[in-house]
Amino acid sequence: MRFFSDNAAAVHPRVLAAMADANALDTAYDGDALSKALDGRLSDLFETEVRALWVSTGTAANCLALAAMCPPYGGILCHRDAHIQNDEGGAPEFYTHGAKLLLCDGEGAKLTPDTIRATADAIADDVHRVQPHCLSITNATEYGLVYRPDEVAAIGELARSRGWRFHMDGARFANAVATAGCSPADVTWRAGVEALSFGFVKNGGMSAECLVFFDRALADATLRRRKRAGLLLSKGRYLAAQILAMVEGDLWLDNARAANARAATLASAAGDRLVHPVEANEVFLRATPQEAAALRARGFDFYDWAAGEVRMVTAWDTPEHDVARLADAIDTL
Amino acid sequence: MRFFSDNAAAVHPRVLAAMADANALDTAYDGDALSKALDGRLSDLFETEVRALWVSTGTAANCLALAAMCPPYGGILCHRDAHIQNDEGGAPEFYTHGAKLLLCDGEGAKLTPDTIRATADAIADDVHRVQPHCLSITNATEYGLVYRPDEVAAIGELARSRGWRFHMDGARFANAVATAGCSPADVTWRAGVEALSFGFVKNGGMSAECLVFFDRALADATLRRRKRAGLLLSKGRYLAAQILAMVEGDLWLDNARAANARAATLASAAGDRLVHPVEANEVFLRATPQEAAALRARGFDFYDWAAGEVRMVTAWDTPEHDVARLADAIDTL
Amino acid sequence: MRFFSDNAAAVHPRVLAAMADANALDTAYDGDALSKALDGRLSDLFETEVRALWVSTGTAANCLALAAMCPPYGGILCHRDAHIQNDEGGAPEFYTHGAKLLLCDGEGAKLTPDTIRATADAIADDVHRVQPHCLSITNATEYGLVYRPDEVAAIGELARSRGWRFHMDGARFANAVATAGCSPADVTWRAGVEALSFGFVKNGGMSAECLVFFDRALADATLRRRKRAGLLLSKGRYLAAQILAMVEGDLWLDNARAANARAATLASAAGDRLVHPVEANEVFLRATPQEAAALRARGFDFYDWAAGEVRMVTAWDTPEHDVARLADAIDTL
Amino acid sequence: MRFFSDNAAAVHPRVLAAMADANALDTAYDGDALSKALDGRLSDLFETEVRALWVSTGTAANCLALAAMCPPYGGILCHRDAHIQNDEGGAPEFYTHGAKLLLCDGEGAKLTPDTIRATADAIADDVHRVQPHCLSITNATEYGLVYRPDEVAAIGELARSRGWRFHMDGARFANAVATAGCSPADVTWRAGVEALSFGFVKNGGMSAECLVFFDRALADATLRRRKRAGLLLSKGRYLAAQILAMVEGDLWLDNARAANARAATLASAAGDRLVHPVEANEVFLRATPQEAAALRARGFDFYDWAAGEVRMVTAWDTPEHDVARLADAIDTL
């Protein structure tokens, strides 16, 4: 029973069906009807004119956004536990040609204006120090916390006042929106976000994330960077099809709600063991090595996070009976 | 009737089926059973131990190979009409951190030891000039010519004697092997090739090319570069599935033969109009603007290449009756 | 007797004296009085407000300018024999993070609007091709030809109409201005040039070139790039002192005139042997290997350029009697 | 009275004289007799065969070394207060094409095997995390502490056991050796160091640092990188002359001893105010803003370091009477 991550979950049948349907089309790169529909469809979803590009991975989406927002000699403010800092194999440095990540603190990998200022204000404004040029937050965070619109807006206001660009890594954006119960617009561009890595792969897609530019001027150079990075698939229609299927009928929200509900079940069972509040689909709980071993012995697969902590992740397709069994197992530890 | 390119052809049903089958698996990145099977399956095909990595695009495959073979301060010998020089939006420079393409001549975009030496020997061996570090050829070439094993071996011998690495861009490798009638080994590692971008997308795949390292030592750093470029899909199993399906039962060769046969039909019709011999699935022929317009008026879609030349490309799925009609139309120009 | 190059000529005594005087100062980087005087002094010379930065080498000056003018995914139009293409060891690609040099033709390494258009117009405006973003000319050219103000202005107008940035490599700018007899302003910003690598090292300096931005907005990021490239010397005052000494009393022009006059003497002797008109301080002449050997046997040192051609370069300090002897020797070949 | 830094101290008269003497030479780049003498002269000093390259700045020396030691996708272990992390404007990332600095702790900016292991061992060995490839220490450290040979050797042994390359930033190497009283060999290659940025500029030079490779195999590619970075001065002889003059008669050690002695005088006066032991030529002491202002009012110039701390630096040429006055002023605060 797999609670290791949501990153290898099955592809939703409606996504698979949409890909099969795309086989009939025959225009290359992003010249097909599906790719061309992305701008409009995402503009509807976000209630404003956006540019929307398919990209094969979340890492690529994040790093294309950062490259559009930060010059090679600049710095990117982010949490010290951010995915871009720890889990992308140096991709931000590759795409930006060596920009420097400037690390900030914050409970549960969540930044606040205060923690951002603490890092930024310690950097002397001279030519010897790399200066901040942009800011990236992750919603939901690496620890499954959710930024609400007002929290994002406070950070957005700081960014605006300092002249920093503002990016949101939304690998689990769907889970965050499902929890916040807000409109996608409220927690992004209305709060100052200029580019969003809108994740679908963890949530029922196969190989398509959507890079959404609220500042549409950033898109043109990004189209060139996407090609230059070897990310412009000749049969892009199969990526566009995935995104459109996920957006259609709010499948993205339905799937996220399903994953979140499963995590909530585990959270209830975990009670005092919880390391962080469970706001999305990740559950971090305290467990001794013996307890972790006992759970594994019963067939549950999950991640050892830090000493005495484990991480369990649910997905849209996590079987409910697996969840029930794991909740029960946690309860009876 | 589309003869524009093979780059947007339909995905073969057996490939689609294999992808659907992969939905049951659930291990991320390249840890799944299908991804793990690539080394073995490609080793069988090439009759030697290889390392085989899935990559989403041919550009990425080429550029990962080049980055493994050339330091940032080095040079890459290639034909001046090579895809890496003209059609990858600067990706080779991105992946290699600014290596320089050193351009060689050759009829039909085909290099020979003589044309390579002409370029290389004109470069003074001092610190002011970028020195050649590797060599890349394309088989079949941009003009649809096919390198035979002895031709590759002659170039490989030159590369070996100069200490240059040797890469083959095989976006249409299947078409080349189908024509040459040789074993894949003969035209690659037995002829000195150390890395091959083995193309499947133009030939019935959806989004998976295979980067094959005959010099297996090059693979480890490439795994890191693939991640760093945002190319490590979390659901890599769907890429591996495509490659395995294409290799299974020699589907790759069957598809290439089908495409080549269609091109041969057009070549016969074109006769004296041919700009290059037709050895793979590309047909370059002389046509006045009026003639090109006449063909388009009859529903044929193709590419204006140079002044007075057009390019027609066939694919595994080009309908035979479309081919027959186009052959007829050319014949009666 | 050295006619190999002007790149190792002695440092002018007034430059050495100015450096010794700078020893009394003690502010680091470019915070000293001499460094701060550059903007003003060069603004006077060019009759407009400029930003002027000291840089240790011409390669660095060129490449900092190009990095300010061309994004990593862009292209730089230049002559195929340009120094940035052939003699800087890949520095343009390093500084620009992999921009591509787009090569143009032109007699004597001199570009014209026509030769530039021939290259630029052959580049399809799509995402697969690297697009021109800037243009770089060398004055005097690699073959010692001089662009006059109207020639530069014609190119500048083309650049402006296409939205390209415009850089001038002036490693031998002094020699060019001395010949053209124009004001420095006329052949630079009044003709559309936005950045000039103003060379002093070949002309009596030791280790200081001046990067002059007529578009002053380009300077701020360049200050950061200069630091990031390890080019911000802590004792920059010794570089500023060199430039100020060269500008003072038009030493730069006097030195260039001296060098040019010596080349003119050689040119007269060479007569029909000349490969290019001698407009600056470089003399290219036809000489058989036997003739070249004969000259060397008489103690003259020079460069074998192409088959049957040699290059002789004069400098501000080339002894006149050496020039006379060489002229005589050429005359009597 | 300047105690701001040693980075703008005067050039020693013997260095200036050596530069003037170099004016007679005339071979370009590093082909002159002085540049060619570096390998031998530094080999003598270090009692082993080395390759020694002049470089204009310490930043460039450090970053060329790091580029030789770390691939673009790799990581560089260093102290979180290291110059390469904080004061080089992103140059390490530029030269290495985006390698990541992996930050370690340590009192007084001094690393130990334990603090290095703490950082390194927390990095999971998978493709998502940037892996350590090299290690850089600074001797003397940013806080003026000195590594003794056995301390370096312990770190060198760790590096060797892990397969990491080992670099020493010796911007104040002279001050460290003067204090340690060891041979230069003992604290470098005999302790495992493979490359040393040997600083001369803070210690009486003008614009020449020496990059010393104990692993000589690293030098060849570095010659190309030096050119590619625009750091290959055409009149390199003036840089070589500086280094040779500094090494001649142990001027480097004499100057460092002079600077260290001045710092010791200040340290004695500072007593309990000292933040770190004074082992080289930097004095960090506690002073309230009022106290700092009082000192400045008396004509002393120095750096506000952290809250309640100031930094005072002595150089080879700091006038002894200024030192005496400052010592007195500190004493009577």
TrEMBL record, chains A, B, C, D:
Gene3D superfamilies: Aspartate Aminotransferase, domain 1, Type I PLP-dependent aspartate aminotransferase-like (Major domain). Residues 3-286 form the Aromatic amino acid beta-eliminating lyase/threonine aldolase domain. Signal peptide: none annotated. Its cofactor is pyridoxal 5'-phosphate. Homotetramer. PANTHER family: L-THREONINE ALDOLASE-RELATED, LOW SPECIFICITY L-THREONINE ALDOLASE. Belongs to the threonine aldolase family. This is L-threonine aldolase. It comes from Sphingomonas rubra. The lineage of its organism: Bacteria, Pseudomonadati, Pseudomonadota, Alphaproteobacteria, Sphingomonadales.
